[in-house]
Design brief:
Layout lengths: L2 E7 L7 H13 L5 E7 L11 H4 L3 E2 L5 E2 L1 H10 L8 E3 H13 L10 H17 L4 E6 L9 H13 L5 E8 L2 E2 L4 E2 L2 H13 L5 E6 L5 H10 L7 E5 L7 H7 L3 H8 L8 H11 L3 E9 L9 H13 L2 E9 H7 L1 H5 L4 E4 L8 H13 L4 E4 L1 H13 L6 E3 L8 E5 L3 E3 L5 E3 L11 E9 L4 H6 L5 E7 L2 E2 L4 H6 L2 E7 L2 E7 L5 E4 L14 H12 L2
Helix pairs in contact: 1-3, 1-9, 4-5, 5-6, 11-12, 12-19, 13-15, 15-16
């Protein structure tokens, strides 16, 4: 029978429930257990796919095409696993399912209420995500007391009653603030948070205490006593040099004892490889400077998977990645050399909309002409084709129909139909709802022999990477590009997946998002090769 660990948060948001959950899952996985994770988001959006990155941070895409919370990305990166749509659900999805069932007569005319109907739907989704695993770690977004979180709290409470007591554990992540003027750490916010949790009917078995100062033993005892928790269940969680250090810190804090005792199991995690990689992140032997050209730089969480993927590659190469954040609009104002001239490699990330495009084109031209290692992702690949067509082929009006629907040379276009991730034919036009016309999820691609893409991915004929985009490279221009020195190095069912430049040490553009499949223990191949090329360019 699957065992459940429910992780809730108190006092305030952004305490790190996701990293806490992923760290505990990592310890269990490295102990030889089958572990999966679930993120529950109490907001009413069906998914974060149509939210602005400035509103919600990055949208993470699973292999089966679900647009999910960025915490799912953390889960995959920590436990080295591929998760799916069932590993993240929202209030919007829950109510959508309940209302759909009611409209179809599934409740046999009963009055539909939060208890039991909405809560039962939540419980069913939690149980479904747990099938086939020894442990399911469930993180509930938001904080205790949020009105939208109450149905989920009730579901957690009921599951505890329906299963043996040793099959569920409640962990509460809370803040111990340090009041500088008084020179004291304060436990009262955490006490009130636990009181609110207990009022709902949930008693935590463990407190993970976020703090900027070490917690004295007396304060831990006070917390344990006032919150009715065993002393060894009060776990200090200070700021770490790297998020990947947190599992190691938890082990040093003695987290194995309360978890082992509660579930009556022996935990002996093998963290040797993990420790080595963390050491390479914190104390690397080498360093490189990578120009990261984007437009959502006000909230760097928008590129979380990509910055983490660079960290993974650096860990395996024992190299620190210094990211030079380059606003593409600033490049438009002052020129590429002024902004990216001192970088060892250039990365142009994905994005939507025309803002900052000219700056990205200038950065691509600079990388091409100055033989600087280059990686373009999604829009970064599309713009590398636009730049090549304009400045090498002489097609001055080459453009993407995303920016000019009437472009004379639509080298990036919107195909009328394509086969989606599930094998179904999809139709799309400029008027189609954006969320419904994306090429989302995992698709196969074939790398061309002798290319940098093939060297990165190895000997297999077909590989899989994840997508999140509407527009495609126009195959009408393929022959013209190849004659001029641009290599089509990867294809997927006739669609262009990757391009390279013949007379360049390392210039690669990929239509997919390689960062979505990068994990600490298994970095993405093309990003690893990109960073490796950057080290050679020092």
């Amino acid at each position: 029978m699957t065992k459940f660990i429910f992780v809730t948060g108190g006092v305030l948001s952004s305490l790190g429930k996701g990293i806490t959950s992923a760290s505990i899952a990592t310890i269990l996985k490295q102990s030889g257990l089958k572990v999966s994770m679930l993120k529950i988001d109490p907001y009413l959006n069906v998914d974060p796919g149509t939210m602005s990155p400035l509103e919600h941070g990055e949208v993470f895409v699973t292999a089966d095409g679900a647009e999910t919370d960025l915490d799912i990305g953390h889960y995959e990166r920590f436990i080295d696993a591929t998760l799916s749509a069932k590993n993240n659900f929202t209030t919007g999805q829950v109510y959508q399912s309940v209302i759909k069932r009611e409209r179809e007569g599934g409740y046999l005319g009963k009055t539909i209420q939060v208890i039991p109907h909405v809560v039962d739907e939540i419980k069913n989704r939690i149980i479904s995500a747990s099938e086939g695993y020894d442990f399911l770690i469930v993180e509930l977004g938001g904080t205790v007391g949020d009105i939208e979180g109450l149905p989920f709290m009730e579901a957690i409470r009921e599951i505890r009653h329906e299963l043996p007591k040793t099959n569920t554990m409640n962990i509460h992540v809370t803040l111990i603030p340090y009041i500088a003027a008084a020179g004291e750490l304060k436990t009262k916010p955490s006490q009130h948070s636990v009181q609110e949790l207990r009022r709902i009917g949930i008693t935590p078995h463990m407190l993970v205490c976020r703090t900027e100062q070490p917690l004295p033993k007396d304060l831990k005892r006070k917390l344990a006593m006032s919150c009715d928790i065993e002393y060894d269940g009060v776990i200090e969680c200070g700021d770490a040099a790297s998020i990947y250090q947190v599992p190691l810190n938890f082990i040093k804090e003695g987290i194995l004892n309360p978890v082992s005792n509660h579930f009556n199991i022996k935990l002996k995690p093998n963290m040797e490889k993990w420790s080595t990689l963390v050491k390479h992140i914190i104390l690397p032997q080498n360093e490189v400077n990578i120009a990261f050209v984007g437009k959502y730089l006000d909230l760097k969480e928008s590129y979380k998977s990509l910055t983490e993927a660079l960290t993974h590659a650096g860990a395996h190469l024992n190299t620190k990645i210094n990211i030079n954040w380059c606003d593409s609009e600033r490049i438009e104002d002052v020129g590429a050399y002024e902004v990216i001239g001192n970088s060892d490699a250039i990365l142009v990330a994905g994005g939507f909309g025309h803002r900052g495009v000219l700056g990205k084109l200038d950065a691509i031209k600079y990388a091409r002409e100055n033989k600087v290692p280059y990686l373009g992702i999604c829009l970064g690949m599309q713009l590398s084709i636009v730049e090549y067509c304009r400045n090498v082929l002489g097609l001055e009006e080459a453009n993407s129909v995303e920016f000019n629907p009437e472009a004379k040379d639509p080298v990036i276009y919107l195909i009328d139909e394509f086969i989606d991730q599930s094998g179904e034919k999809q139709l799309r036009t400029h008027e189609s709802p954006m969320g419904g016309t994306m090429r989302l999820g995992e698709y196969p691609f074939t790398p061309k022999t002798g290319t940098n893409l093939k060297k990165a991915y190895g000997n297999e004929e077909v590989y899989y990477e994840r997508h999140r985009h509407r527009y495609e490279a126009n195959p009408k221009y393929k022959e013209m590009l190849e004659k001029a020195g641009m290599i089509i190095s990867g294809e997927s069912n006739g669609l262009i997946e990757a391009v390279e430049i013949k007379d360049h040490p390392w210039f690669v553009g990929v239509q997919f998002h390689p960062e979505f499949t990068s994990h600490l223990e298994t970095p993405n191949p093309i990003i690893l090769k990109f960073v490796e090329q950057a080290t050679k360019n020092i």
